[in-house]
Amino acid sequence: DVQLVESGGGSVQAGGSLRLSCAVSGATYRNYCMGWFRQAPGKEREGVAYIKSDRSTSYADSVKGRFTISKDSAKNTLYLRMNSLKPEDTAMYYCAAGGSWYCADFSYWGQGTQVTVS
């Protein structure tokens, strides 16, 4: 079975930084894209950052220039570096794997890690 386990969330003051990690175990099928999503209370889940198998990346406008997605294939780990955090970044953050080339239809999801910015 494929498992994704996030870590690195926490509470931080505005302007601070966090790095989220997502450890992936098991063989993923059709893993053209991996990504980070977030969901704040009362809001829909939104895609934050994506990284394709060719290592190209894309970001939501709200995080461009502040967040960086990366992966370490040797460690099967996905990262999200978050700088200049704002209160509106407060949300549960989820990693996802097994996405299509268009970064849709993700097959595997983590359980989430909470990020709170005050």
Topology record:
Elements: E1 3-7, E2 10-12, E3 18-25, E4 33-39, E5 46-52, E6 57-59, E7 67-72, E8 77-82, E9 91-99, E10 108-109, E11 113-117
Parallel strand pairs: 2-11
Antiparallel strand pairs: 1-3, 3-8, 4-5, 4-9, 5-6, 7-8, 9-10, 9-11
Mean pLDDT score: 95
Give the structural class. mainly beta
- How many strand elements? 11
Query: In sequence order, what are the helices and strands, one letter per element?
Result: EEEEEEEEEEE
Give the terminus-to-terminus CA distance.
37 Å
Shape: globular
What is the helix fraction of residues, given as a range?
Answer: under 10%
Beta-strand percentage?
Answer: over 45%
Radius of gyration: 13 Å
User: Segments where pLDDT lies below 50 for 5+ residues?
Assistant: none
The largest β sheet comes out as: 7 strands, mixed
Number of distinct helices: 0
What are its keywords?
single chain; 118 residues; seven-stranded mixed sheet
What does this structure look like?
Strand 5 and strand 6 (57-59) form a beta hairpin. This protein starts with a strand and ends with a strand. 0% of the residues lie in helices and 52% in strands. It contains no helices and 11 strands. Strands 2, 4, 5, 6, 9, 10 and 11 form a 7-stranded mixed beta sheet that branches. A 4-stranded antiparallel beta sheet has the order 1-3-8-7, with no helix packed on it. The chain is mainly beta and 118 residues long.
